[in-house]
Design goal:
The chain is an alpha+beta fold. The chain contains 4 helices and 5 strands. Strands 2-1-3-4-5 form a 5-stranded mixed sheet. The chain is globular, with a radius of gyration of 14 Å.
């Protein structure tokens, strides 16, 4: 799978991040089954638990745009190695695509490609009797 267009979109989204506390800007780009690319960036809050990650921002924007089926996501940050979605983001993504291809990248061009199932096995096991 080619992630170049998603990495480019995530990089642009990252520029809009609001991260005055951590100074760790993250961008995400989600490709929907219909071919749309929807982006998100992290938005911090002084009450850190209210912070929203880039990945969830992209999912929520997609849902608001009427998109509920996803093909792939890319995440980019200025880190030594590519960062993967946090546990909360993994669980939100699993609600819609439990084997979603994920490309994590950094600004230096390093990439780590995996699937959501690899990062969050058994995402729906034991929840509500499933």
């Amino acid at each position: 799978m080619n992630f170049d267009s998603l990495i480019e979109a995530a990089t642009k989204a990252r520029e809009q991040a609001y991260a005055p506390y951590s100074r760790f800007a993250v961008g995400a780009a989600l490709r929907t089954k219909s071919g749309r690319i929807i982006t998100g960036c992290n938005v911090e809050n002084l009450s850190f638990g209210l912070t929203i990650c880039a990945e969830r921002a992209a999912v929520f924007a997609a849902i608001a745009a009427g998109e509920k089926e996803f093909e792939a996501i890319a995440v980019i940050a200025d880190s030594l190695t590519p960062v993967t979605p946090c546990g909360a983001c993994r669980q939100v993504l699993a609600e819609f695509a439990d084997d979603l291809p994920i490309c994590s990248a950094n600004l230096q061009g390093a990439r780590f490609v995996s699937t959501l199932r690899e990062l969050l096995p058994r995402a729906k096991e034991g929840i509500l009797g499933a």
